[in-house]
Design brief:
With about 200 residues, the chain is an alpha+beta fold. It has six helices and eleven strands. Strand 6 and strand 7 form a beta hairpin.
Length: about 200
Amino acid sequence: MKLKVIIDDNARDIDVPQDMLDQAGEFFAKMDRDMDGGWRMGPEFIEHPDERQRCQIAANRLLTAVSASNTKVAMLMAGYILSRLAGISAVRIDTGGEMLNTELLFETNTKDGATVAAPSPGERPQKAAPLTRADAIARAEKEVTKVFRVGQAYRFATLDRASGRWMESALMSSSEEAQQMRMEAFDQRFEELLESST
């Protein structure tokens, strides 16, 4: 099986033999166990990474392996992604340290029989159903991180929905100040989500 890996402007195919996929089942299961306890993905700590996020984590490790010319680890990480996401054809790996910005691309059939890469399920839907207040709160919680410490200061990050990148707040001297600013950002995002879904 092949996985196209796109890093900046460079693309390469990683061919993972079927026998390697078959033999690496226990290794992949160990990766899942390691991620069961949560994982820091950029500024955000994800307590329970879902399937897509786990593949973004694997893609980040794939980037490290490619940079170090470690073919075996690169093949294993590509194999993990292929084994977990049916129909995946490519990954566009974020190189700025924001794993959540890594794109997972899937093959979709067109009417003429050709295939084109499509965004991963759940990402950038063309038409979203109206959000309930509970849905908007849950989305806002995911798009505005909790306050985290940076040296002696505090900050949080907000997902820029247009670019898909995390925007960090200014550094604040106290946790209380950061929490207050974070709540203001959360309330603003909550209102934006409600308005955009109507």
